[in-house]
Each structure stands twice: as structure tokens, then as C-alpha cells.
Model the fold of this input.
Amino acid sequence: MQPVDVVGVGNAIVDVLATTTDDFVASQNLEKGSMSLIDAARAAELYGLIGDAVKASGGSAANTMAGVASFGGTAAYIGKVSDDELGKVFAVDMASIGVSFDQPPATEGPSTAMCLVLITPDAQRTMSTYLGISALLEPADVRVAAVQRAPLLFCEGYLWDVESAKRAIRKAMDLAIDIGSRVALTLSDTFCIERHHSEFLELVAGPVEVLFANRAELTTLYECDLDTAVAKVADQVELACVTLSGDGSWLVSDGEIIEIAPERVGPVVDTTGAGDQYAAGVLYGLSRGMSLPEVGRLGSLAAGEVISHLGPRPQRPLSSFL
Done:
């Protein structure tokens, strides 16, 4: 396996994106702006109700790897799909954007995962995710050679809901640490943090060196106000990247807070993937040894690009910002 800049581990999901109204979100008893897990029957029901939709391979960490590739970096992905139509779509999509994905598809078990993304007029997204086979990632799926391809390992908090997937991520983290690679983690979602609060605290205090979180996620993790949460995380990780929505972001490192301004690439159309692409910019910058202000600027530019259109991945090459 050829060396790459970043290896991502996460859910392998096909996104189904549709614009809708606040009334529809409420009528389906969905909490606006949240991510909820659903079963196969509910996924089929919602899919039948949303009408026209855009399909794109996704998953949080997979979107980030797509962003790294769009910057001109090299990336590989570890995730699980089934040997079905959506599984083939996912694999072909990743190959087409230059992300290495050579995980053999599963021939038994649930179908490939799907995420129904409902986008309201204020650009907020409400996600209903059928995890399917993606959640059944196992330690055996994490090959030593795959993790050892990169000096950066990026893991997705969303994958923490199944015991075998937890073991798979811990295995990947251990392999990365053994060869001196840096471990990065995105907290993913406040509800995810609440489900696994003590374990996430342990990860951040332990193997994680680079942490990605938005304001709500960080304060949920430490159960306090933002300033106090920033002070706590500063003592536990090498670099904390805290996104603040329209107010930009903070990079916290060595007791210093570096303020990063937001970058306006166009009008806000859809916030899906903003955090994923911010992480892509930061990871690409770190892989190139850039300064933290430069790293943060690339994160802001990538986020600004992706929220200017429908979908969680860049439509213009992010390398154009370099």
C-alpha cells in the first residue's frame, strides 16, 4: 500500500439530500438540526416521503477524506459497505475523487448505510441515519498495513454506537500510536457525546492528539461554559479545533487560542458537511507542516465552500484556495 497523508475511519454511508420545510420536519417528530438513528423500515418510510433528492456517497469521515483529496492531498478510508448497489456507488465515488478505498464488501448482513438529510430554508440539516452494515465495522476490518499508510489517523465519533466498531477504532488508534502517528477525533454530535460521555472523555484525555468539536459539542463534553471547556481541553490535547459557526473558529494549542475568521465563499445554501470540510482543511494543512493560522484558514475556506451549495463535499477543487 502506498503512503498517504491521512487515513480516515468511519461510517461508509450514501447520503440522500432533500430540501423541505420546518413543518415537514416537525410532522415527522424529528428534532431540527439533530442526527437520529433509524431502522431499515423507518428509512424506507422517510425515503418514500421526501420526493426529489440528491444522492451522494458520504459519512462524516469519508467527506473529510474527500476534502483532503480535493486540496491535492492523498487519503485512504476504512469503512464497511455491503455487496449491493449503494455499496458499489460508494466505492466508485471514492475512487473517482482519488481516495483509496479497498475494503472488501460484506456478502452477508445488512445493506449499505443511508443518511436522509432534510434541509430547511434556513440551511439547517436534520439527519436520519440508517447505519446498516457500516456500524458493524470489526477489528478484523482494520488492517495493520492500512493504518500504517499515514502519519495522521482521523476517527469519527459517530461510529462509537456499536461495540465491535468501538474495538475497531481502538485498534486503529493503538496501531497509529505504535508507529508514532498522530490520532485525530471528531466528536460528531452532542447526542453522540451524551450517549458515550465517559468514553469520549477518556479518549480525549488519552490517545487523541488533535480534536475537532463545535461549541455545543465541547461544552457538552465538559459540562460547562465555553471558556472553561477550552481551558480544560487545552490541557489534554496537542491541538483542539473549535468551530463557532458564523463566528469562525478557535485553534487551541500550547495554552494559546488562535482566532480564525470565517471565510465567505458564497451565500449559505446548506450547512451539511461544514465541520467535515473544516477538518479536511486542517488535516491537509497539518500534513504539509503549515502554521496553525494557515491551517485554520484552510479549514474556514473549505467550510465556506461546502456551505455555498447543496451537498457535503466540495464542488470546486479546494486546491484553488492554495
The first helix runs from residue 22 to 27. The chain has a mean pLDDT of 94. The radius of gyration is 18 Å. The CA atoms of residues 193 and 200 lie 7 Å apart.
